[in-house]
Amino acid sequence: MLTIRRIQPQDIFSVIKIAHESLPERYQPNIFNTFYESFPQGFLIALKHHKIVGFLIGVKTHDAIAKILMLSVNENHRAQGIGSALLINFLQEMLLQNIRLVDLEVRTNNKIAITFYKKHGFDIQETITGFYQNGEDAYIMRQVLQMH
Asked: Do the Cβ atoms of 95 and 147 come closer than 8 Å?
């Protein structure tokens, strides 16, 4: 049974652990609290059997624009629709928040992530040279949200 919900303060340590294990970038732990406090509507977790197995962090950057900062699923739980469920829930929540554009950055060599985001309606907008800590390039991807 998969559950997607907003993060709660007691969930932060599990999210930090997943981020550390699955993302190449290194983040200061207090940044997760900052994201939670600044835009809790954009901080979602995925639970399977009451255990946190993934998360998505997004922030509102302008009146009608949001940005996905991180999306990660525990390695043992990938390819099970968890990332898709997180993303779909986030996009639905952004519509409720009157967001019309959602942006994100992805490594230009991360073919799995690029394919995933394209499948969910994101398009590559431009390339940013040397975006990541290790100097790798990023694509900016964007989706225009449609009211249904």
From this structure: yes
What class is the 2-144 domain? alpha beta
Q: How far apart are CA 23 and CA 141, in angstroms?
A: 19
Read off the pLDDT of residues 46-99 as tens digits, 9 standing for 90 and up.
Answer: 999 999 999 999 999 888 999 999 898 988 888 889 999 999 999 999 999 999
Residue-wise pLDDT tens digits, 84-118: 999 999 999 999 999 999 999 999 999 999 999 99
Show me where the domains of the chain are located.
2-144
Longest dimension (CA), the chain: 41
Q: Which own/partner contact pairs does 29-35 have at CB distance under 8 Å and 24+ positions apart?
A: 32/57, 35/59, 35/69
Query: Which string of DSSP letters, residue by residue, matches 46-75?
Result: EEETTEEEEEEEEEEEETTEEEEEEEEE-G
